[in-house]
Specification:
Elements: E1 16-17, E2 20-21, H1 22-53, H2 66-77, H3 82-131, H4 138-161, H5 170-199, H6 202-222, H7 231-237, H8 247-262, H9 264-270, H10 276-283, E3 288-289, E4 292-293, H11 302-323, H12 330-352, H13 364-391, H14 397-419, H15 427-457
Antiparallel strand pairs: 1-2, 3-4
Length: 465
């Protein structure tokens, strides 16, 4: 099958760093700062709501829109105490962050192009982070962050693919490098924003997230000349005829939609790291080291730190498998990622055994769980990003990247919904539920893997990473 025409490289033959266009590293550091701001704010969000904003029944009434949000949730789920209420808000916020990229992708594909969409998104998110420093504007701040993320997320990722011509083998490796940038920001953010928020005051942490977003915007504006022209710019120079999708393109689109739907369960259990696992880290984990008390938000630096360690090792392992013609297809890798995500919570079942409400356990349990979640993530997330840019029809590639993020929308809301059972179930039973969901999701992907591979490839050729 002819490689889908995702990009015509405008700068790939120019100056390179480590064999890749300079533009890759502009996008790398722009995304790093955006992820610094997002994960810095996320590391504090649940604790901020549970321990401060909604701590007392009357506390939230000074927050603009609190009555509307709480009333709407309670109309569906019944009376909500601070923890389940905070979990629902966390789930809705992180879900909507991944819903709006679908519309942001359409906006870029049809109206303003990827570059302007990224700039618009960065400005909106910077405003949102700074609004978080004002308690009464908590919900308007979340709205700015949601809208900004919608414009930013799908259009920064598709620009990575645009740096490479069709069939260029560097594209998969470029997405792995780009993914390291994501996790570089995610690693430093809880160390900086989390520490400032827990030690100096919540608003210092949120303000630091805003500074990070401004840094990313400035870097992106400075590096514009190193990027390939986005799809809308290239289309404007060519013929204006709009052709409908072909039968083969529709088949690939539908296959990608189904793949994204099958990922929902993985994100539902994975995102517990910012929700119930953060509560476990804060309430049930020992954080004293050499006489020093470490902020519990540092827990959220485990995952990106392990990405740095494991991504090169897995790339080497996959290359070794490829030489032996035993490398799994992209979709089979994603099934394995879901299996590993479910298995990770078996560690927490053991950690929770015999643990009382105030009993503190070793940090090793969280390390083991996050290790397995991280390997699962590497088998699923960057592989999926690369698959979308390879298989999606060129004229709707940003919208299809938005569809990829839709799986995170439903998964993040599922994360918040599952978190409402945290105080209702024994902790061992809660983690058993997450284990079953992950293993079930992996089984579903595995069973449908072969038909999906044929549909995505078009002629039976497998997409491997």
């Amino acid at each position: 099958m002819r490689e889908p025409q995702v990009a015509l490289a405008g700068v790939a033959q120019g100056r390179t760093i480590l064999g890749h266009p300079v533009g890759l590293f502009v996008l790398f550091f722009t995304e790093m700062w955006e992820r610094f701001s997002y994960y810095g704010m996320r590391s504090l969000l649940v604790l901020y709501m549970v321990d401060h904003l909604f701590l007392h029944p009357e506390a939230g009434h000074s927050v603009l829109g609190f009555g509307l949000v709480k009333g709407g949730l309670e109309a569906i789920f019944g009376p909500l105490e601070p923890q389940p209420l905070s979990s629902q808000i966390y789930g809705l916020y992180t879900a909507l962050v991944y819903l709006t990229p679908f519309f942001g992708g359409m906006l870029a594909d049809r109206v303003i192009g990827q570059r302007r969409a990224v700039i618009l998104g960065a400005v909106l998110m910077a405003v949102g982070h700074f609004l978080m420093a004002v308690e009464s504007l908590f919900f308007p701040a979340l709205l700015f962050l949601i809208l900004g993320s919608g414009a930013f997320k799908p259009n920064i990722s598709t620009q990575v693919g645009s740096l490479y011509p069709p069939g260029d083998p560097r594209r998969d490796r470029a997405f792995t490098i780009f993914y390291i940038g994501i996790n570089l920001g995610a690693f430093f953010s809880p160390l900086v924003c989390g520490t400032l928020g827990q030690r100096l005051g919540w608003h210092y942490g949120f303000g630091a997230a805003g500074v990070g977003m401004v840094a990313g915007l400035c870097l992106y504006l400075f590096g514009q000349r190193t990027l390939a022209p986005d799809l809308l710019m290239r289309t404007a120079r060519g013929p204006k005829e709009k052709k409908p999708l072909t039968r083969d393109e529709w088949r690939r689109v539908l296959a990608l939609v189904l793949i994204c739907a099958l990922n929902i369960v993985f994100w539902g259990i994975y995102e517990q790291q910012g929700n119930t696992l953060q509560l476990w880290a804060d309430r049930n984990t020992k954080w004293n080291f050499l006489g020093l008390h470490i902020p519990s938000t540092w827990f959220q630096a485990f995952n990106p730190f392990m990405i740095f360690l494991l991504a090169p090792l897995l790339n080497t392992f996959w290359s070794w498998q490829s030489r032996r013609r035993s490398e799994p297809s992209s979709i089979m890798k994603m099934a394995m990622g879901c299996f590993l995500g479910g298995a990770a919570y078996a560690v927490m079942i053991l950690a929770a055994h015999g643990t009382g409400p105030e009993e503190h356990r070793s940090i090793a349990w969280l390390l083991g769980t996050v290790f397995m979640l991280t390997v699962g993530e590497l088998y699923l997330s960057p592989i999926g990003l690369s698959l979308v840019t390879k298989a999606a029809p060129a004229r709707i590639v940003s919208m299809m990247m938005g569809v990829w993020f839709l799986s995170s929308f439903f998964g993040n809301y599922l994360s918040g919904f599952l978190g409402t059972f945290w105080e209702q179930m024994p902790k061992g039973a809660f983690f058993l539920m997450l284990t079953g969901l992950g293993l079930g999701g992996g089984l579903a992907i595995w069973l449908l893997g072969r038909p999906l591979e044929r549909a995505v490839a078009g002629n039976g050729r497998r997409h491997s990473n």
